[in-house]
Target: Cyclic di-GMP-binding protein
Amino acid sequence: MGKGMSKLRVDGVSGERTPRFCERPAGRFIAVWIGLQTAFAAPLAAAATAASAPAAARDLPQTAPSATGAGAVPAPGPATLLNPNAIAQPALAMPVPAFSGTPAKALAARTPTTAEPGTLVPGGRRQTLTFADLGALDPLQLRGTDGQNGVPFSVRGDEVVTAATLHLIYSYSPALLPPISQLKVLINGEVAATLPVPRDQAGMLVARDVSIDPRFITEFNHLNVQLIGHYTQQCEDPSNSSLWATVSNASSLDLTYAFLASKPDLAALPAPFFDRRDVRRLELPFVFAQKPSAQTLEAAGAVASWFGALAGYRGALFPAQIDNAPLSGNAVVFATPDSRPAGVNIPEVSGPTIAVVEREAPARGRLLLVLGRNDAELETAARALGMGQNAFSGESATVTQLTDLQPRRPYDAPNWLPTDRPVRFGELAEARDLTVSGYDADSVRVNLRVPPDLFMWQTKGVPIDLGYRYTVRPAPDRSSLNISVNNGFVQSLRIPAVSSSTFDLGQYFTRVMPDRTAAARREIYVPPLLLTPRAQLRLHFYYDIPKTGECQGRVLDNVVGAIDPNSTIDLSGFPHYMALPDLAAFANGGFPFTRMADLSQTAVILPNEAGSADYSLYLLEMGRMGASTGYPATGVTVTTAADVDRFADKDLLILGSPGRQPLLQRWAKSMPFSGDADTRSFQLTDVGFKLVDWWHGPHGVERSPARADLSLVSSNGDALITGFESPLRKDRSAVALVSAAGQSDADLSAALLDNDLLPDIQGAMAVIHGRNVTVTSNGEAYYVGHLSPLHYMRWALSSHPLLLVLGGLAAALVIAALFYRALRSIAARRLRD
Model:
């Protein structure tokens, strides 16, 4: 529940749990193997009758070592030379012949010249993932005599891999000697294939299919490619620049899955509706009855934000289905006895209830039922699901009590760095992730989500008390600890060498005292402009590879670097004060709505006659808010334009298109956009002709005055996002997401989930058309937050030099008058004496 915010008690109906044996990788494989044998019993019997006895033995699950040995691995398929310009084309993957037969044959009877993806079984699926999909933003580089690089991948808990094929695209150095050089493909440390490096293909792009034994694949996996490289049979330099190979990130992994059956159980939540092993974007339909009430939508927003927090960087879509469930797949259903979707069987409801049920054939998948006897109980069930899902078990559970123990406070979102105390790195990353080893080790990465309204004017930046340990160098070299935030460089700390001085007295003290030269602590400062709402601190231990030269032995890869978990980052010295509108803060952190983690100070204004597209956009935004805060939006308010005056004390998120959202006309004078059913009006400034990061100035935000008002009639309106000060209250904000049903709705949703487009959403108004984002206005500035009087006076006078001079003169006159009165009083007292 986090911080003891709520108390939850449930009455559950116990369900039968999946056997622990099937939760293990080997158990999962054997369980699905039994199911596959049952499903394909007839083909297996026919194949066994027609084939010879040894062949039949090979088709059955391995109970004894085969002729080739238990560890034998299928040989890779033939290599194909590729046109470098064709890497990004779908036709790059080599055509694979279909395989007819049983899954047992598909596993055991692979030939060296085929790399079939396997035969789909009922409920199974096939998926192709490129290395780029798995996180390799650049090609994988292999260097030296033993270079190694790779990508991780995972398998859903309710699936098992029955066949796998690696479509590898690579090139290698012409200097490699074919007899003693090769590339090894490893899956979880097991050798899947060894690829030769013939001279006639050196320096070219080569494509090769490699069959991977699915028994090597577990839930969490790592696929590596290792270069065993040599350029001479005599003495060689292990770090010679001619020892290289490159694996394209267009290489792909073709996987065939089979479904693992299990009984519905709330204890497995959020699976199968969300599986942390699944690298795909979450797409989970939400099903409502006709015309869902505001409280039902608030309950749906809480559930969507919970799933959005789980999905994190992958993003989440929640297509709204009105009065009908999707034809197949998983879905979430919101219903009461008086308001239930058609075609969905609702059990008897005795209170706020959460249940998981199988879908009726022929549909596949499960339904997560959020139920209540009325809208209030429905909302209670949704809140309980978001905050206490770990307490549920069985097929259904009824919530008998849910009491809030402590209200949320501003800026206390679980994902955000606390701003009232120093934060240890051990709270932000696992201890094992703070240690790296080897000359080619990746950076230590620490994710930093900070509130976007921290006021860091005229400061050195955010202080980090950094403790780190390192391998002392045997001789002075260029080794260093390089510190950056995202792609912005911060500082470089030199890694020292062992002292070689004859007169160094320290060497005598090391006999009686521990050597402390391998640890250090430094204070560094992160510049304010680098600390965005979604920042990542990267600490790269760069160890200079010693030049041993030829015939001097190989380089020992025994260097280690570690960041002390007790290192801290401190945001407590910065007040909260910010100039708005700033759509960059909204796009990247959901600000100002996420200032309260539960969105208790947010009201969502839906258009008149809202439809499924409006509900889908609302749920998408709730998912984004949850991904930012890490907490379900249990306090959000949903209403319409007719009741907006009741929520003047809240920040407003306005949805709809001109003609359906009356506020776009009613508040036209307060915002840089207005429109009705036919006409659209835009306020234009010079911001479109300036640099992208227009708001970053020496004194904070710099606004360009409006230059023109453009009104037009368009047959196909673009989607746009605009921010402005709430006309209902001066210290509140409003953000409008304007789109119409059709392409503009799709463009807006895609832009909000596209990490490449989010940095382009800035200013007070951004127009979205396809994958193009144009900033047209930066609006009129207003400020949220609070500064101390002295801090505010310094900041205000800094941008007005003349006012500063006049203020200095006024202060001098006041001080002179005070001294004059004091001296006259002293003189008068002296004369009286």
Observations:
- The two ends are 77 Å apart (CA to CA).
- The chain is about 20% helix and 30% strand.
- The domain at 266-404 is CATH 3.30.379.10 (Chitobiase; domain 2).
